[in-house]
Amino acid sequence: MYKHFYLTSVSSTFQINHPYVKVWLQFGEKRIEKRKTPIFNCTLNPVFNESFSFNVPWEKIRECSLDVMVMDFDNIGRNELIGRILLAEPCNCGC
């Protein structure tokens, strides 16, 4: 279970957030599969108690990454990004 407290409001008009989490499975730079949580209405303190599973062949696991985004749902315009993390194998290129 992941908790996040005190999200900053990204809604410029009403100061009310409708957060949800979107998780993308990526193979290299290509997005393969997506999962989403339900939208939490009118809260800056959501608790996401979700689990996601993806089927990935063992020999391809090091080439995959997860892009986890917390989004603010917007009924009228585009959904806004609140925060993001990329979970991936560190590169061995020496950079």
TrEMBL record:
Q: In what residue span(s) does the C2 domain sit?
A: 1-95
Where on the tree of life does the source sit, at the highest rank?
Eukaryota
Q: Which Gene3D superfamilies match?
A: C2 domain
* Gene Ontology cellular component annotations, sorted alphabetically: axon; exocytic vesicle; plasma membrane; presynapse
Q: What is this protein called?
A: C2 domain-containing protein
Q: Which organism is it from?
A: Glossina palpalis gambiensis
Biological process terms in GO annotation: calcium ion-regulated exocytosis of neurotransmitter; vesicle fusion
What GO molecular-function term can you cite, just one? calcium-dependent phospholipid binding
